[in-house]
Amino acid sequence: MPSRPDPATQTNHALRLVARREHELLALSELSQELTISLDLYGVADLFLFNLMGQLGTSRSALWLISEHDRRVPVLLRSHGIERRTAAALGAACASWLLERLDGEPRIVFASEADEAARAISLLIRRESIALFAPVLSRGEILGFLAVGPRVGSGAYGPVELQALQTSLGMVGVALHNTKLYNRLLENNRQLRLANENLMELDRLKSEFLSNVNHELRTPLTVVIASLQILLDKAPHDPETGEFLTAALSEALSLKGSLENLLDFSDLTRNRVQFQLETGDVASTLRTYFEERLPGVTHGLRELAFHAAPDLPLARFDRQRLLQLVDALVDNAVKFTPEGTRIEIRVSPDEAHDDSRIRIDVTDDGPGIPPEHMKDLFDSFSQVDGSATRRVGGMGLGLAFANRLAERMNGVLAARSEPGTGSTFSLFLPVA
Amino acid sequence: MSDAFGITEEVRGRTVLLRVRGKLDARSAPHLQEVGSRIRSRKLNLVLDLSGVTFMASSGLGSLLSLAEEFRQSECRVRLASPSPAVESVIHLLNLHQFLTIDASEQESIHALET
């Protein structure tokens, strides 16, 4: 019969267990507190994964979301301890196999279950040292899934760790669902504001059109009125002709009055497109833009990051036009890259020109642009895929428009791209 | 000691010494991860001096484990130096001494990496 451990050893063991439970409770408490603050999809993913890794004692984790467009193609949100491209490939390879197991009964799927699956999946999971997968659920619906590596110091996952994992998954499911809703709301607000701005622009164009038409109508009308007056002044007329001429003159004068009223109105509302170049801080302008744009981009399951070098000099630019330009570049990056792409706005001094210009890069790690399309990138109505079957809508005006805006602010817009690696659009603005 | 998080960076040959101070938690963990990953992408070794860490939450430990794993897969190395009691107790609790390489001082860590 094995001997019982002495009381001191038993006490130490018990104290250690208590400390471990305390660590798990503190971890859950941290997660629950911080999740109520974070409303950025990628921030939630970072928080969840770091918290879980520290809670369980594992050095590898990744989190994917199921795309609303295609359930078989998961979008990698974040991976830690697993290289990003490797994690994206792992998610793509395992998604169908995993979802088959999760659809009927959402549960934790251990890596050992993959041994029965296709050999390629099993080998991949072993190579990347994945211990288990778990679904992220919200209201019974699978939002995404998680993979974690083995525990690096404390043996296999036991019932207590798995219970803590389930609790964390429940919290993050609600947080991701809320974040997606919040992002959609913010993006809808932004779209409404843009639609409103477009309506105002249309209104201005209407006034300009009216003004032009007005001038075109007034000149011949003046001739008509003058001719009628000459004819009336010439005596004698027969009474019927005099009556017709008087009526014609009266209507012509009335028409002239209406036209003048219309002209006054359109002059008041007309506001020709003018650039107001002012000295300002590019970084703070774009940081505000980034904060407003972030929810919409992440809602489309692309990551948007912002980085500004410290102590940048002031530059000369038109704030509204700069925002339009950068927005066109970000729109372009969103339109022509798949979900899961990382887009970064980076503001830095242009070291190649002795810091006499400020450089604004919009970089993505998408599929890149084929070299043969680089030369006509900024032409109006040019799209890389001009075929009738192209998957992205729009008239190809975005980059041409951005290029015109850059020129009007005495700036330069340039692009470089490497197929398979991504693209960078760089705007150079003169410092003040 | 202040709880405000901060990192100072010092280059010693092919090694970067990061002195971390304050609370290493959900707010600061992504920052530490970003700085560490940047050093790895420059193909430099890393020493994390954790003597100034006043509190380490689960997320903070997660970022340390993630960095250790990333460096393990690369040709660069990472060592932790003089962890504060707040760090040491969590590492001890989860038996992470074998996974994380820990030295008593930053000089020892730098010496181990530079020789």
- Low-pLDDT segments of chain B: none
Mean pLDDT of chain B: 94
What's the main sheet of chain B like? 5 strands, mixed
Order of helices and strands of chain A: HHEEHEHEEHHEHEEHEEHEE
Percent range of helical residues of chain B? 40-55%
Strands of the widest sheet of chain A, in order across it, are 2-1-5-4-3
Number of domains of chain A: 3
Q: Tell me the total number of β-strands of chain A.
A: 12
Overall spatial form of chain A: elongated
- What structural class results from the helix and strand content of chain A? alpha+beta
Backbone structural class of chain B: alpha/beta
CATH topology assignment of the largest domain in chain A: Beta-Lactamase
Terminal CA distance of chain A reads 87 Å
Task: Describe this entry's structure for a reader.
The complex is a heterodimer of chains A (432) and B (115). In chain A, helix 1 runs antiparallel to helix 2 and helix 5 (159-233) packs antiparallel against helix 6. Chain A has 3 domains: 7-183, GAF domain (Beta-Lactamase, 2-Layer Sandwich), CATH 3.30.450; 195-269, Helix Hairpins; 278-430, Histidine kinase-like ATPase, C-terminal domain (Heat Shock Protein 90, 2-Layer Sandwich), CATH 3.30.565.10. Chain A has helices at residues 7-35, 41-56, 84-104, 119-127, 159-233, 239-269, 282-299, 319-335, 398-408, and strands at residues 61-66, 74-80, 109-110, 132-138, 141-148, 278-280, 303-308, 315-317, 342-349, 357-364, 412-418, 422-430. In chain A, a hairpin with a 2-residue loop joins strand 4 and strand 5 (141-148). In chain A, the strands form 3 sheets. Chain A has a 5-stranded antiparallel beta sheet with strand order 2-1-5-4-3. Residues 268-272 and 385-396 of chain A have low confidence and may be disordered. By secondary structure, chain A is α+β, with helices and mostly antiparallel strands. Chain B has one domain (6-114): STAS domain (Transcription Regulator spoIIAA, 2-Layer Sandwich), CATH 3.30.750.24. Chain B has helices spanning 29-41, 58-73, 85-93, 106-114; strands spanning 6-12, 15-24, 45-56, 78-81, 102-103. In chain B, strands 1-2-3-4-5 form a 5-stranded mixed beta sheet, with helices on both faces. In chain B, helix 1 packs parallel to helix 2 (58-73). The termini of chain B are far apart. Chain A binds chain B through residues 16, 19-20, 23, 26-27, 30-31, 34, 43, 46-47, 49-55, 57-61, 80-81, 83, 149, 152-154, and chain B through 25-27, 29-30, 33, 57-63, 65-66, 68-70, 72-73, 90, 93-99.
